[in-house]
Amino acid sequence: MKKATAKSSELTGRQEITRRRLLGTASAAGAAGLVVGGAGGAYGYAATSGAAPLTSVGSTAVPFHGDHQAGIVEPAQATGHLIAFDLAPGAGRKGAAALLRRWSAAAEAMTAGRAPNDDNQIALDAGPSSLTVTFGFGLGFFDKTGLKDRVPENLAPIPPFSSDALDPKLSDGDLWVQIGSDDSLVAFHALRILQKEAAGTATTRWQMNGFNRAPGATERPRTPRNLMGQIDGTNNPKPTDKDFGTKVFVSGQTGNSSWMNGGSYAVVRRIRMLLDSWDHLSLDRQERVIGRRKSDGAPLSGGTESTPVDLNKINPDGSLAIPGDAHIRVAAPASNGGAAMLRRAFSYHDGYDQDGTPNAGLLFVAWQADPFNGFIKVQQKLDRADGLSRFIRHESSALFAVPGGCAPGEYVGQRLLES
């Protein structure tokens, strides 16, 4: 019970940091206190050199160290990069450990607003801007490092779904990195540094770039909208929920899987939205496909965005208020034996196909303690019954075991690689 309380306190603390970031109410002095590293950080440089203090967006830092890795419970930032790497032949366990040590040191510095080694000064004028860097391991990582006996039970191939149109070149990978920041240059800077640190040990398998609404773009913090214009994420589990930790984070593992305690599993799917087809639907039809009003995200069963969905409500004409194939009905925990996951997505747009069709959609990242009782269970239901499936296409897929966080002086994955 004490361990759960500690985790809850940490989650609450991180939420408070990000809430201050979104509200933008921190004073210059208060914002400085959020930057790990003191005078060594970008804010410290500005304060001691006579330069103007950074804004609240630039000065906000998310701690790198902790029981869990950052980039899971925090709201998704304005800019995101998802990158998968494959270990180079012969890199082995020793090379992987050295790489994770370099990556962790660089991430620790950059998330605190300090310059890492071999800095290229891309983000010289900016603070950490809520930068988070999160690391995960794919199934192939364990074979190439001689750690097959350490593969956790839940890191298994995701079963195929009838609506999949997966590109193997954009799927899977030995190592995965998620980068997020509220400043695009800060995010790219982190990406570039980590890619350079990987040279000779791992090569890029795929990379995806995403975005969200910037902090301060709305009059108050709001649930994000996706490229279909729908509010997306209303029913996400919340850190204040009593079972939040058990749904999102792994615990109670012993023996060869104990290194995953405090970690989570990330399902990564690139979901293309068939926007031309979607835009041809009437507003009423779009709302019935989702089960929510487009204007404010309220369920069609009535109320506001935060009103619990009433799946049993009947309209005066005898029809279901929430249609039988509406996305929120099919995806609801009540329709899936309580299965839930924490969605933390980015939108993407990679230009237009030759016929003018937009290559755009969602970089879907779902966090859960058990992917088979989270994403996979829900997707099996969505694959058969979701009306939204006619307007989306899953084009890439991956599952990564994301270890817990590390303490100062340690690196992410150390409990696995040095066990």
Automatic annotation (TrEMBL):
It is an enzyme of class 1 (oxidoreductase). It comes from the Bacteria. Pfam families: Dyp_perox_C (PF20628), Dyp_perox_N (PF04261). Residues 69-212 form the Dyp-type peroxidase N-terminal domain. Residues 211-244 are annotated as: Disordered. It is found in: Cell envelope. Residues 223-406 form the Dyp-type peroxidase C-terminal domain. GO terms for molecular function: lyase activity. Binds 1 heme b (iron(II)-protoporphyrin IX) group non-covalently per subunit. Involved in the recovery of exogenous heme iron. Extracts iron from heme while preserving the protoporphyrin ring intact. Belongs to the DyP-type peroxidase family. This is Deferrochelatase. It comes from Streptantibioticus rubrisoli. The gene is efeB.
